[in-house]
Write a structure and sequence with these properties.
There is one protein chain. The protein is an alpha/beta fold and about 325 residues long. Helices cover about 45% and strands about 10% of the residues. Strands 1, 2, 3, 4, 5 and 6 form a six-stranded mixed sheet that branches. The longest helix is centred in the C-terminal third of the chain and has 30 residues. The C terminus is likely disordered.
């Protein structure tokens, strides 16, 4: 009889760095991300949000990285708790050691509240400044458009409350009195495309499709009304027919912008060939919205705006990681 083979499993013993190097390879996307952005410098202004007194908590750089990956992967707070504890690549990127205790789900909510939307917006702009320094922004041609964000709500219950209070129906005039998300409103793209929530307005640089500016408004806000919040001076913004309005041209003129607006059919100055060319130029960038979350993670406009800044940051960094190696290879 043949002797039975030894099935003993060999154990790997090494330093913490050796373990991470074994699991998180050199070409891992998070290693590229770590090499692209100086997160210590990025998060240094946020340290003022913490006091030097009391017990030492989780370092802000670790927390900010965790929040970025939460939106990068579209995790809930509980999913992020599990991911940073169990996923070796995420644990390495965030800076948690193998035996170090990782945060629970309540930490992420508290950190977002501590940061506030203004600081998150500043971090988004700082990341864009770095990417601009790497030549990823053209700062000439822009794509401007808006898309729907559906709010977290319970409209059937809220409608019943409104009717019980004597309202004929629940609408934009009275919804703030009954809705869980009091900032949201009904919006419509057509008779069948109706939603309750917000609009995400984007100013996208057309060199590589990176988001440069954004705004969030209630869903019933006309698209052109938000233009003043996201316009970039001295550029040529490409916009669809809904922006073919006198006040839009006034904003463009005030910002020294050349118009890329597609004109309506009843506009006497419409040039069909020119507008056909503008449509073709716009088309590749319309897919930007399809890659972003279409539902609000939170309630209130200011919290949804913070969500959009983190999503835009993740979107830009994903594109930058895909683009920069190609530029390096061609150099």
């Amino acid at each position: 009889m043949q002797p039975q083979k030894d099935k003993t499993t060999r154990m790997f013993f090494g330093t913490e760095n050796e373990v991470f190097d074994l699991v998180v390879k050199e070409d891992h996307v998070f290693r590229k991300l770590e090499g692209m952005i100086d997160f210590s410098e990025l998060t240094d202004p946020l340290r003022k949000l913490y006091s030097d007194l009391g017990t030492t908590g989780i370092d802000i750089e670790k927390g900010f990285k965790a929040l970025l990956l939460q939106f990068w992967e579209d995790y809930s707070d509980r999913e992020m708790e599990n991911a940073v504890r169990e996923n070796m690549a995420i644990r390495w990127f965030c800076g948690f050691g193998l035996s170090e205790t990782t945060p629970d789900h309540t930490y992420f909510c508290k950190l977002r509240k501590r940061l506030g939307t203004k600081n998150i917006a500043d971090a988004f702009n700082a990341v864009n400044k770095t990417l601009r320094g790497k030549g990823l922004f053209g700062d000439v041609f822009r794509f401007i458009d808006a898309s729907a964000i559906v709010s977290k709500t319970a409209l059937w219950e809220e409608r019943d409350k409104a009717i019980a209070s004597g309202e004929e129906k629940l609408n934009n005039a009275n919804v703030k009195n009954y809705a869980a998300d009091k900032d949201a409103r009904w919006g419509a793209k057509s008779k069948t495309n109706i939603w309750y929530g917000y609009k995400r307005h984007h100013n996208v640089d057309m060199r590589h499709g990176l988001i440069d500016k954004l705004a969030v408004t209630p869903a019933n806000t006309p698209d052109p009304k938000a233009l003043v919040q996201i316009i970039t001076p001295n550029t040529m913004p490409f916009m669809d027919k809904i922006y073919d309005q006198a006040r839009v041209y006034q904003i463009l003129k005030a910002n020294n912008c050349h118009s890329g607006v597609i004109k309506k059919r009843n506009n006497k100055t419409k040039n069909k060939d020119l507008d056909s060319w503008k449509s073709k130029i716009r088309m590749p960038f319309e897919g930007n919205f399809s890659k972003l979350r279409k539902r609000a993670k939170f309630r209130s406009r200011i919290k949804v705006l913070a969500q959009c800044y983190f999503e835009a940051m993740a979107h830009n960094l994903k594109k930058a990681i895909a683009i920069l190696p190609l530029e390096t290879d061609s150099a």
